[in-house]
Design brief:
Order of helices and strands: HEHEEHEEEEEHEHHH
Oligomer: single chain
Number of helices: 7
């Protein structure tokens, strides 16, 4: 499954992940309106399912609603790696201290989810894999028990996240599920009830 950035953010927000607010626009006028509600500098980002959006001119900063409209006008309709941009995400601009790449992929051969992580975010991961393969962590998760606290700590350590941040934040948040998932607390409670 491939998800555009704004769809991924919607899903992550359901699980309590703190994110920059943002809304989608399909016209320059909508982008300007969203920028007005933000009331500070924004970033206008092409929503296409390919990497390298920034290099292709699909990510632009805008200090005013008028600049946001111009950025959206320049991006909408643009072709990025053969895909036409029909939607942009307008979100508050952030001062970026460091960028990471973090993804979870289905490794069909291993029949398991694999975490892909790199401290060299902000670039195409394929380029990093080609030029600096040692900068990428590939961590296969157990297919039956999934993501565990020690996996999260290993990824955080590999990325160079400080021990202070790792101590408090490196726990899978199973209690944040918006639905009852197999293996979740509600499912376990149901099993206990049946066992009685």
């Amino acid at each position: 499954m491939k998800l555009q950035e704004y769809r991924s953010k919607e899903i992550l927000a359901q699980y309590g992940v703190p994110l920059q607010a943002g809304r989608i626009a399909t016209t320059p006028q909508q982008a300007a309106e969203i920028a007005r509600t933000v009331a500070r500098a924004v970033v206008v980002k092409a929503q296409v399912l390919v990497g390298g959006r920034g290099k292709a001119g699909g990510v632009k900063l805008a200090g005013t609603p008028e600049e946001a409209a111009r950025a959206a006008e320049a991006i909408l309709g643009k072709s990025i790696k053969g895909i036409t941009v029909r939607t942009v995400l307008v979100a508050p601009a952030a001062s970026i201290a460091q960028e990471f790449y973090l993804g979870l992929i289905l490794d069909r051969a291993a029949k398991a989810i694999t975490v892909i992580a790199s401290a060299e975010g902000g670039v195409e991961i394929e380029e990093t894999a080609r030029t600096h393969p040692e900068a990428i962590l590939r961590l296969r998760l157990h297919p039956l028990i999934g993501l565990q606290e020690h996996n999260v700590r290993r990824v955080a350590y590999f990325l160079g996240i400080s021990a202070e941040l790792r101590r408090d934040r490196c726990r899978p948040r199973r209690d944040q599920s918006p639905r009852d998932h197999r293996g979740g607390a509600a499912h376990r409670a149901g099993r206990q009830d049946r066992a009685r």
